[in-house]
Amino acid sequence: QLHLVESGGGLVQPGGSLRLPCAAPGHGLDILGLGWFRQAPGKEREGVSCITSGGTTKYVDFAKGRFAISRDSAKDKAYQQMNALKPEDTAVYFCAAGLAACENGISAPGYNHWGQGTQVTVVS
After folding, report:
1. Measuring CA to CA, which residue among 64, 89, 78, 93 is closest to residue 14?
2. Which of 59, 60, 95, 96 would be 22's cystine partner, CB 3.0–4.6 Å?
3. DSSP string over the chain
4. Nearest partner of 97 among 63, 73, 122, judged by Cα
């Protein structure tokens, strides 16, 4: 059973930065695609970024130039670096994984492992 655990969320001012780890203790992530999603109150979940097992990264428009996804199989973690944060980035952020995840797009089917989410709040 693969369990994903997000962390690194918290309060940050506009323009600030956070790095969110997604841990899978005891499991290697090298053969999996990984993605980050977010859900704001009253809104649907939306894709943010993803990375294939081969290292190809993809981003939605609002994340381009500000967010960066990476993968560290040796530490059983994926990361999302988030810079120049805006109030509209406030949401619960989820990591997800699957064998073919990210190959056909950030929000395409294929994520069969999900974390519980970590809260990111961007306020003055």
Report:
1. 89
2. 95
3. ----EE---EEE-TT--EEEEEE-TT---TTSEEEEEEE-TTS--EEEEEE-TT--EEE-GGGTTTEEEEEEGGGTEEEEEE-S--GGG-EEEEEEEETTTBTTBTTSS---EE---EEEEE--
4. 73
CB proximity list for 103: less than 8 A, separation 6 or greater: 33, 52, 110
CA distances from 38 to 6, 30, 41, 48, 117 (A): 12, 23, 10, 7, 8
Question: Taking a C-beta distance cutoff of 8 angstroms, is the pair 121, 12 a contact?
Answer: yes
- pLDDT > 90 in the chain, percent: 79
Mean pLDDT of 15-37: 91
pLDDT reported for residue 1: 75
**CA–CA gap between residue 28 and residue 42 (Å, rounded):** 35
- CA 60 from chain center: how many Å? 12
* Gap between the Cα atoms of 49 and 60, Å rounded: 6
Work out the number of other CB atoms within 10 angstroms of the CB of residue 47: 20
